[in-house]
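RECORD TYPE: protein structure
NAME: Exonuclease domain-containing protein
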Amino acid sequence: MSLLPSVSALGHTGLGSPSGPQGALQVPPKPLTKRKVKQRSERVKDKVPHDVRQRYVNMFTEEFLKTSPTVKDSFEKALAEERTVYNRSANKLKYLSVAVNALKRMKNQSAVPTKGVCECICVCTRVCALLIFNSKGEHSPQHEPAWDAVLYESLKEYIMNEEKLIEHNYPLQNPERPGSAILFADNKKTVNDPLKRICCRCGATYSVSKTGKHTRKEECNYHYGKGVEKKVPGGDETRYSCCEGVMGAPGCQVFRLHVHDAVDMNGFVSSRPREDPERSCPGVYSLDCEMCYTTHGLELSRITVVNSALHVVYDTFVKPGNDVVDFNTRFSGISEKDLKEDCPSVGEVQQTLLRFVSVDTILVGHGLETSLCALKFLHGTVVDTSVLFPHRMGPPHKLTLNNLTADYLRRIIQDSVCGHDTADDAAACMELVLWKMKEDGKGRKW
Ligand SMILES: [Zn+2]
Ligand SMILES: [Zn+2]
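PREDICTED:
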């Protein structure tokens, strides 16, 4: 896709017509005091070939694209700039020198975008939000819009179709109940007794009251690692990857209570069409969530959204709707002190997301179905790195985000003992997608 308007567009705007005589420019009427300038600009008309002028319009458009929200806007600015250059030049040589200087000036202006705190996305004051400001310090509605537009086009082919969404257990709209979602491949173990739960960590069955609270305090003891088979003298031996304990040994992790990972399929919202679809790119964002275990199962406790420039645009802890049984601190790094009363609810987070995620916004993530379930957010325009980089043994095997970042980005993440970092993970997913795009020879700015 070419982002730049063609030569014919130059004619339509009244700057000069390629089919008419070279000099047929519509120079706007000017006051008498500027007569000299006007005469000079009319003399130069024949001296700057149309294709040279078009070339500079193109180059100017490229520069303006770095700070303007749309191609149309950039093109109009480029036309105005080129017209100024043209009017100031007595001959072709002068035109070239003025045009080159103008281009240099523009490049300097758009080279280093400054960062600033932006309040357009976040509703809550604790949220850290960074967006890129243009050279004049004005806030652009979307960071690096030109880059986003290029990225968006290149990523289109990686968007999962409905079949893939079903296969990978993404939440989909329940056709019979608005605001409810369904999972087609729900293979979680459940029991028929409404007052019994199966612990998703150790597999034990435990009893709960009508409100979902544990009726007995019972420790949950398990291995979070997998059994790994190893050759040892005299045969094979399976040990847990978490603690090197022999298969069958008592769990190396002990928790106060059992937990279950059911997700309430009500209270879902769907991303909506944009009100002004022509205006700008729908955007590309990567997101990562943390969950905790409550009396009602898995609930959202943190969300972090990163833009295509790898800047955090939305990051907040989230207050679960029910009593927390286990903060899942070992993996999430989140503890009781983080989830304060003034944290937004999942409903408030949904409303914030709806402000910048429309139905055609590309959301990037690793196994994003879990995040979307926790967010109770129905969205089908998804690029999932766990699907984009398949396991060599095929589904249901999936590579972890750790595997992928180590293999493709040559980096180790999620090593921290106090849980992994959602911003790191979201950024890693975006980087993986950028890597893939580059590898497949897409995009033009590499
Ligand atoms: Zn273990
Ligand atoms: Zn358990």
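COMMENT: Residues 1-38, 112-143 have pLDDT under 50 and may be disordered.
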